[in-house]
Amino acid sequence: MSDALIFLNGDLQDGKAVQAALSHADLPDRLIIAADGGLRHIYALGLRPDLVIGDMDSVSPDQLARAKAEGAHIQTFPTHKDETDLELAVLAALARGCQRLWLFAATGDRLDQMISNVQLLALPQLANAQAIIVSGAQRCWLARPPSTEVHGQIGDTLSLLPLSASARGIHTEGLYYPLRGEPLYFGTTRGISNVLTAPYARISFSEGLLLVIHTLGKA
Predict the structure, then answer these.
(1) pTM assigned to the model
(2) CA distance 139 to 137
(3) Which three-class secondary structure state does DSSP give residue 4?
(4) Cα(59)–Cα(78) distance, rounded to whole angstroms?
């Protein structure tokens, strides 16, 4: 599975989950992508970009020139476009054959952008790939039926939030508050703040979309 590390222009929020995800930068076939101003995080971390993509309204001109001189591919889009820079970066990573996407700096003081970044996990083109938002000690991804797995430590916090009207037929293993076939409904809070009782948990369900938020340690 080839990995893409995609950096946005939000807050990097360094932490255990971010550091674990950054270890994938050492893989031989990984792709490092800057979504516009996310280029600043790449250079701050001592990495080199393979692709810079977006409308270039927030990237430093000096850093953009540096990336170009270092051989990065620069893909510029109009400011007036239908996709966010992150969506363009995700589609570019998928087009290059990446199947696991790590999304950094997807949070910040723009609530609309942050919610949009989470909703983007439901992009149809991601149905056969995995996109994971990492922030601080947290990582989150969208689970589709029939199941998803969580690998962590006893005591880690795990929340399950439906991104569809409901998620049905949910069965869990390795969680303090079990679900035994019950549904979770959009707009309710029942799935918040569960706890791993084993280093491995499994969530099986028959219908819907579940946002899985795994905090490394107690939230």
Answers:
(1) 0.95
(2) 7
(3) strand
(4) 14
- Over residues 131-167, the pLDDT tens digits come to 999 999 999 999 999 999 999 999 999 999 999 999 9
Instruction: Give, as one character, the DSSP assignment of residue 65.
Output: H
**Number of helices followed by number of strands (H, E) in the chain:** 5, 14
**pLDDT band per the 50, 70, 90 thresholds, residue 184:** very high
The DSSP secondary structure of 177-209, one letter per residue, reads S--EEEEEETT--TTSSEEBSSSEEEEE-SBS-
Chosen CATH of 3-136 out of 3.40.50.10240, 2.40.37.10, 1.10.3370.10, 3.40.50.2020:
3.40.50.10240
Peptide bond into 145 cis (omega under 30): no
Beta strands of the chain (E only): which ranges?
3-7, 31-35, 51-54, 73-76, 100-104, 130-135, 138-143, 147-151, 157-162, 166-173, 180-185, 194-195, 200-204, 210-215
Question: Is the CB of residue 52 less than 8 Å from the CB of residue 39?
Answer: yes
SS3 at position 19: helix
Q: What angle do CA 105, 106, 111 make, to 5 degrees?
A: 125
- Does domain 143-215 fall under CATH 3.30.70.260? My reply is no
